[in-house]
Amino acid sequence: MALQPSLRPLIVAGRYDAPHTLDIFIDYVCPYSAKIALVIDSVLKPLLDAGGKYDGKVKAIARLQVQPWHGTSTFTHEAALAVARVSPQDFWKFSLVLFKNQGDYFDIPSSQLTPLQIREKLVALAATVIGKDKAEEVKDLLTLKGSPNGGVAVTDELKYTIKFSRQNSIHVSPTVLWDGLVAGEIGSSWGEKEWTDFFTTKVTV
């Protein structure tokens, strides 16, 4: 599937030019997305990255799926996009840390925080992954500037991810596409056996 160049860090497993594509739509405050994120890290990356059985054949793209019924969803995705810009190689590492700490951004724990306070928490979390100096760059990207309703520096990337989800009629997270079509059989609880069986029947290169 298409991916604008600035979002190449969202390819979290496999090579950029691999002919088969898994688009995995995830939301940072969705518990089921957290489950599939762990699977991406423990199962898919070993299979798709260098030396894996499907190295050069399949790539996996983390498609950021903002769920607007969770108030902090937009902020968490903005933070991930800012990290992707400042420290592309750490995007997925930060994503995993964000999933590990997602409870801090659930509706009730975050209900008394202002948007600025939520962004400050996310910058502090980013600092644990990319260091304080780069986290200051993330903070700058997440600072409201310009027009009163102009968003932050990564708003355009956020718009792209949302528009991509909408045009593909993605409603829930996680949802997985295989070569552009929804693969409804794939679940967040799939393990190595299920994924290996899936690739055995689907990979044609």
From TrEMBL:
<dbReference type="Pfam" id="PF13462">
    <property type="entry name" value="Thioredoxin_4"/>
</dbReference>
<feature type="domain" description="Thioredoxin-like fold">
    <location>
        <begin position="11"/>
        <end position="104"/>
    </location>
</feature>
<dbReference type="InterPro" id="IPR012336">
    <property type="entry name" value="Thioredoxin-like_fold"/>
</dbReference>
<dbReference type="InterPro" id="IPR036249">
    <property type="entry name" value="Thioredoxin-like_sf"/>
</dbReference>
<protein>
    <recommendedName>
        <fullName>Thioredoxin-like fold domain-containing protein</fullName>
    </recommendedName>
</protein>
